[in-house]
Write a structure and sequence with these properties.
It contains 14 helices and 22 strands. With 460 residues, the protein is of the alpha+beta class. The strands form 4 sheets. Strands 3, 13, 14, 15, 16, 17, 19, 20, 21 and 22 form a 10-stranded mixed beta sheet that branches. It has an 8-stranded mixed beta sheet with strand order 4-11-9-8-5-6-7-12, sandwiched between helices. The chain has a two-stranded antiparallel sheet with strand order 1-2. Pathway: Phospholipid metabolism; phosphatidylglycerol biosynthesis; phosphatidylglycerol from CDP-diacylglycerol: step 1/2.
């Protein structure tokens, strides 16, 4: 890594940022899992020309089955694609034995009688090039996902784009707090995201080639990396006229907003997270009162991101242990909430102008991710980051992410919608006045703290 204008960047930086201007009114924000689920179904069923989806995995419950049936049997769009992560998608549910692969075969590729459907949707599984070496041989199912996954989450339905940090299924459709922004009738952005999904799909395994799962059917790492690089290269060439300058232009009027997008992929030297955060800081300026709000279910920023977060007063919203999806899980996973508490305490020691808030809502978990930027006089944000990234070490080095920056004007309709996201999270959050006391108060074992700081933080 090298420092460029205060940013920690790869020695060979391949980051490309693309810029689009759209009507402020084109952006809808959904605030609940129920609204998210209904929007997903509506987009799939209403698509006429294309329906392309990308996610980490699809759950195995009734709502996920309904969603997959909509894609396989009810959507009339001639182009239908679903891209998932290979390792997560082939992992079997420990209760039912089902996986994303088995569910897709049944609900997307076959009709209600069990007969194959005509013109089936494409089902692709991306296996990270980081899945290699001794980890490929010795790490078991679920453990091997620490090496790296496909983590992008989006839907393109005709010229509409759904951006989210949520996966398509399970508690994300019921009681897991996340984010969902929908860009209506934005053909340029829709085509860009569609091409990104195609690029990942071109480097993926077709469902027909997934027979045994895990390392048995996984492609070779070098081949995947080469195909992915070539795929992104074609997208970047196609959209070179949309390549962004080093700054974010101000929207022409309060009724317009600027959207910038990039790919985060450490093993391809693409660092969109840092680049877009740097641009968000430029938007907010350095005036007195300029501030940030960051939400992450897994707050573990590497030095480059952390340094920029430390440049402003910041409110950090995280999951309390009960709102962490690993709470009361079995085996070593039961210590994951303690590991994140350890990292959050250490982070707040370094963010000297930061305030920690823990989200706790009965029977809910917390997975929201994003960074909101405010100007010195601002009561509502003038910019916001949204996407699949948690802005941690994993996102920087191991996972495949897509990140978006929205720039709007203070007081605009979109600014108000983005502020409502923050207000909704803060409603269920409590301020931790002395974060350093959490380690003792929660009886976190010393070995957990040591292991987290020395090694595990690079994989979580």
């Amino acid at each position: 890594m090298v420092l460029v204008c205060g940013r920690e960047m790869p020695e060979k930086d391949e980051t490309k940022i693309f810029s689009f201007e759209i009507p402020d009114s084109a952006v809808d924000v959904h605030y609940t899992p129920e609204d998210f689920y209904e929007e997903v179904l509506s987009l799939i069923r209403g698509a006429k020309t294309r329906c392309k989806m990308i996610t980490l995995y699809v759950g195995t419950g009734d709502r996920e089955r309904q969603m997959l049936r909509a894609l396989g049997r009810e959507c009339n769009a001639p182009e239908r694609t679903l891209v998932m992560d290979y390792l997560r998608g082939t992992r079997k549910d420990h209760k039912t034995g089902a996986s994303s692969v088995s569910l897709c075969r049944k609900e997307v590729l076959h009709d209600h009688t069990g007969e194959p459907v005509r013109n089936p949707a494409e089902l692709k599984f991306f296996c990270s090039p980081m899945y290699k070496g001794s980890g490929r041989v010795f790490l078991r199912e679920r453990q091997n996902e620490v090496l790296g996954v496909q983590h992008m989450k989006a839907i393109v339905a005709d010229d509409t784009v759904l951006l989210t940090g949520a996966n398509f299924g399970g508690s994300y459709f019921r009681d897991r707090q996340d984010r969902c922004l929908v860009l209506q009738n934005c053909p340029d952005i829709a085509e860009f995201v569609s091409c990104i999904i195609d690029a990942v799909g071109s480097a993926s395994v077709d469902i027909g080639d997934v027979q045994h799962g895990q390392h048995h059917d996984a492609p070779k790492s070098k081949e995947t990396k080469k195909k992915l690089q070539e795929g992104f290269g074609k997208v970047y060439d196609k959209f070179r006229d949309f390549t962004a300058d080093s700054s974010v232009p101000e929207p022409k009027t309060a009724k317009r907003c600027v959207v910038q997008v990039g790919v985060q992929c450490g093993y391809l030297n693409m660092s969109a997270d840092q680049e877009l955060l740097w641009r968000l800081l430029e938007i907010t300026g350095e005036g007195e009162g300029s501030r940030l709000v960051m939400a992450s279910g897994y707050a573990n920023p590497p030095p480059g991101i952390e340094g920029m977060l430390a440049s402003r007063p910041i409110d950090v919203i995280v999951a309390c242990p009960k709102a962490n999806s690993f709470y009361k899980s079995g085996g070593l996973s039961q210590y994951i909430p303690d590991m994140y508490t350890t990292m959050e305490v250490d982070l707040m020691k370094r963010l000297t102008r930061g305030t920690l808030h823990e989200y706790e809502r009965p029977y809910w978990t917390f997975h929201a991710k994003g960074i909101w930027g405010y100007r010195s006089t601002g009561a509502s944000p003038v910019g916001c980051l949204v996407g699949s990234s948690n802005y941690g070490y994993r996102a920087r080095d191991r996972d495949l992410e897509m990140s978006f920056l929205f720039r709007t004007k203070e007081g605009s309709a979109l600014s108000g919608k983005l502020q409502k996201e923050v207000d909704n999270m803060m409603e269920y959050s409590s301020t931790v006045h002395t974060p350093s006391e959490l380690l003792t108060a929660r009886n976190i074992p010393a070995w957990v703290q040591t292991l987290t700081r020395k090694w595990l933080k690079f994989f979580l």
